[in-house]
C-alpha cells in the first residue's frame, strides 16, 4: 500500500536478502509482514 511505503524506514529494508520487513506495529492486522523486493530495487 502507498501509505505503508511512505512510512518505510531504512532499517526495515534488507537489501542483502531482498526483503522489506514491516513491523507488526505498522500493520493494520498487527502482524509483521515481509515483502520481497524486485530486482530493480536490489
UniProtKB/TrEMBL annotation:
Family: Belongs to the 'phage' integrase family.
Organism: Hyphomonas atlantica
Gene Ontology molecular-function annotations: DNA binding
Superkingdom classification of source: Bacteria
PANTHER family in alphabetical order: PROPHAGE INTEGRASE (PTHR30629), PROPHAGE INTEGRASE INTS-RELATED (PTHR30629:SF2)
Name of the protein in question: Integrase
Keywords: DNA integration, DNA recombination
Gene Ontology biological process terms, A to Z: DNA integration; DNA recombination
Tagged with keyword Methyltransferase: no
Amino acid at each position: 500500500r502507498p501509505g505503508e511505503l511512505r512510512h518505510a524506514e531504512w532499517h526495515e529494508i534488507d537489501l542483502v536478502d531482498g526483503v522489506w520487513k514491516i513491523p507488526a506495529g505498522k500493520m493494520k492486522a498487527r502482524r509483521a509482514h515481509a515483502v520481497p523486493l524486485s530486482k530493480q530495487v536490489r
